[in-house]
Amino acid sequence: MPRFFVGTSLKPDDIMSLPDDVVRHILVLRLQPGDSIVLFNGEGGEHSAELVEVERRSAKVRIREFCDVEVEAPYRLTLAQGIAGGDKMDWLIEKAVELGAAAFVPLTTTRSVVRLTGERAQRRQAHWEGIVRASCEQCGRNRLTEVMPVREIATWLGGMPRQPAEGELRILLSPRASVGFSALPAEPPKGGVTVLVGPEGGFSSTEEAAATAHGFMAVGLGPRVMRTETAGIAVLSALAAGWGGW
User: Fold this and answer.
1) What tens digit of pLDDT does each residue of 58-81 get?
2) Is pTM beyond 0.85 here?
3) How far apart are CA 78 and CA 104, in angstroms?
4) Which domains does the chain have, with CATH numbers?
5) Alpha carbon 52 to chain centroid distance?
6) I need a labelling partner for 157 at 20 to 30 A (CA). Which of 16, 36, 52, 143 fits?
């Protein structure tokens, strides 16, 4: 059944007009009055709904019953990613959403190929938020992954406590790490986990030192060096398998 995100309150028996982007999807899918759809607003759970009117530029639905369904992972995971070039970030965010990431932090680093500042950074953040909504519609999540504003890695690190809170885990992926993935705890941390991944050229030694000074544990992923768009997704997949996130 088609699922759509709407950023407004949803109440059973209400008749509401759908936003323009949802209307476009409904027209593409050739849905007709009487067809059933699912709506969610990111606050948890979802509503069944019935199309009551479909026009060329508008559509209305009658909200039906609320279903308190959740498909979130049993841990809160933040993926902090050095900004990658091309369409890699779009792909990364889409897959991170599917794998249950609760938050995504795009970081500018010394070796970042792409530099985003000012209005350009704001436009890119809005674009990524659109990818999150579409991915949640597709994968069945009813809570949106939060996309944070673009930040310099030094600024981001400087805004967090130098030591993790009780039950919090901070992971830095590094090909220079002496600790392997098997050293991570067998159970998900109650205080959440942050996975920090560098851009195409990786983090500089200064950036890695700053991360470890803020409580990040450097972890290696074996003898093969993974691309930036592979490393974080591989870790999120492994953690989901080990910590019950599937």
Assistant:
1) 999 999 999 999 999 999 999 999
2) yes
3) 6
4) 3-67 (2.40.240.20), 77-243 (3.40.1280.10)
5) 33
6) 143
